[in-house]
Amino acid sequence: MAKVRFLAHGRDWTVAVPVGTSLLQASKTIHAPEGDACGGVCACSTCHVYVTKGKELLRSAEEEEEDILDKAFDVKATSRLGCQAIIAMEGDIECEITRESLDAFYNEHPQEKDPRKAH
Fold it and tell me: Is pLDDT of 43 > 80?
């Protein structure tokens, strides 16, 4: 099992998932606010995260993922698409959910309160 910790809004969500799970699947398991407008098929960049710990535990990014990341906002060396970042080894992984992904999540889930906005 791998332990994945998602960070956003000054809080965190942690889940243990089996090797072979994507970061997007892991986030859905614990309802972390990671967007997925395309349904996780590598057709958009709304599941964009920054992998701040454990990047070496993930399969390497393939060309298709790199092409989609070229269209994402504020791409960094630690950027990955959650739908394509597949856990390859056991260990601890930490991801910061990007603003782009948070925007998509709250647009996709209007019933969810966005803590970034005053209500």
Answer: yes
In words, the CATH class of domain 2-108 is alpha beta
Q: What pTM was estimated for this model as a whole?
A: 0.96
Rounded to an integer, the average pLDDT of 62-71 is 96
Total number of residues shown for the chain: 119
Domain boundaries along the sequence of the chain: 2-108
Give the burial class of 22: count Cβ atoms within 10 A of its Cβ; 0-12 exposed, 13-18 middle, 19 or more buried. Answer: buried
- Between strands 11-17 and 79-81, the pairing is unpaired
Residue 119's pLDDT is: 57
Give residue 117's pLDDT.
87
Tokens encoding 108: 């996709």
Separation of alpha carbons 98 and 113, rounded Å: 17
Using alpha carbons, list the distances in angstroms from residue 81 to 14, 24, 98, 103, 113.
18, 8, 10, 15, 24
Give yes or no for a contact between 12 and 81, defined as CB atoms under 8 angstroms apart. no
- In angstroms, rounded to a whole number, what is the distance separating the alpha carbons of residues 23 and 8? 15
